[in-house]
Amino acid sequence: MNALRSVLVHLDGSPRSAERLHVARSLAAAQGATVTAMLAANPALVEVPLSYLGDAGGALLLQEAEAQRTRDARALFDRENARPGPTMRWHDPPQSSPAISAFSERALLSDLTVLGQHDRHDPLSWGVPRDFVPAVLAASGRPGLVVPAAGPFGLVGLRILVAWKPTREAAHAVTAALPLLTCAQTVRVVMWEEPDTFTPRAEGLTDFLSLHGVQAHFDRAGPATGPVGELLLSRAADAEADLLVMGCYGHARAREWLLGGVTRTVLKSMPLPVLMAH
Question: Which structural domain range is residue 141 located in?
Fold first, then answer.
């Protein structure tokens, strides 16, 4: 598995864009990758239809807010690009394109995306759909490193916890994480047994990882004694992990994503960055 060469980071109008860009730059510097930054948010008049604004003045204010969001994102990029570090590029999305489709299309040409946890309390992230993360992962097929909505993070991936189950999504996440797993100081694999079903052992995964030069320790979790999402976050805290690797489970229904229980819990309550793949 080659090192990461192309990292695409999602920017919006919120202050958390700076933290996502910082994480992307740190990963890119460690991997010898290029960072591409892209502002992706639904156009203002998609978020608030003209019929709701009352008059032309309201539309002008909304358009100015949209323009200011773009200026702020570009200014953040320019400040970071002026600092020593990895090569950085700016990508302009197609005009008036929905956030998910525009970002997903660019993600097709990236090794890894850096995304942000949805924060419904942050009004400055307006224009970013609440199901942006799972929708982008599914539409692009590319892995995403999701950065929590709170807390500073340095170089992630020194202590990695892998949540394993014998599924396509989990296998995709592990394969996508190999460039980081090979550089980690410690890698732990955890899997909970599902009641009344045959659960394959996870030693096969540690054997697979060893072929790639990754020495992983298998934590025998046994049967789950509670909601697996909560158990997983607790195990990550106990292991002092700075990165969680897991599959993203869910499916689209009507206009919104329905997430699996573990995925929903992690995306809602994550205290550490999570590398996910669908």
Answer: 6-147
